Amino acid sequence: MEYTDTPVAEEAEQPSHSPTAATGLLETAEGHASDLVAVMLSIVPGLGHIYKGYRLVGMLLVFGTPIAVGLALLVATFTAGFGFFLLPIFWIAVMVNVWAIPDRVKSDSADEGEQY
């Protein structure tokens, strides 16, 4: 005898999100963004963010860096040069941020690494 009022078990399979502007995912040649490459691209602040899929933040950083440099130079004139220490802090903060944020590019879930 079979009990027929049991709920139907739903499959736990996650739907595959395609990389579109609506999903916020982007597609790279590798299928995922490398944190090391993003940090190296952040030598020019904003390029690493663009690489990882954060286009708006990246563009704001690219165009905001000359303003940050100008403010550091202005502060340096009034603080006997100590304002120049703001620039390395800015660059390090941008690099740490791009390393820490999650990727917005499509990751290839079928890649399970090397098989032996």
Would you give an account of this structure?
- With 116 residues, the protein is mainly α.
- It has a domain at 35-100.
- The protein is 45% helix and 0% strand.
- It is built from four helices and no strands.
- It has helices at residues 35-41, 47-52, 55-78, 86-100.
- α1 runs antiparallel to α4 (86-100).
- The longest helix has 24 residues, at 55-78.
- It is elongated and about 90 Å long.
- The protein starts with 34 loop residues before the first helix and ends in a 16-residue tail after the last helix.
- The mean pLDDT is 78.
For the structure shown, list the relevant keywords.
single chain, 116 residues, mainly alpha, elongated
Taken as a percent bin, the fraction of beta residues is: under 5%
Rg from alpha-carbon coordinates = 22 Å
Distance between the termini: 48 Å
Q: Work out the helicity level.
A: 40-55%
Structural class: mainly alpha
- Counted by DSSP, the helix tally is 4
Instruction: List segments where confidence is low: pLDDT < 50 over at least 5 consecutive residues.
Output: none
- Which term fits the overall shape? elongated
Mean pLDDT comes to 78
In short:
The chain has helices at residues 35-41, 47-52, 55-78, 86-100. The chain is mainly alpha-helical and 116 residues long. It is elongated and about 90 Å long.
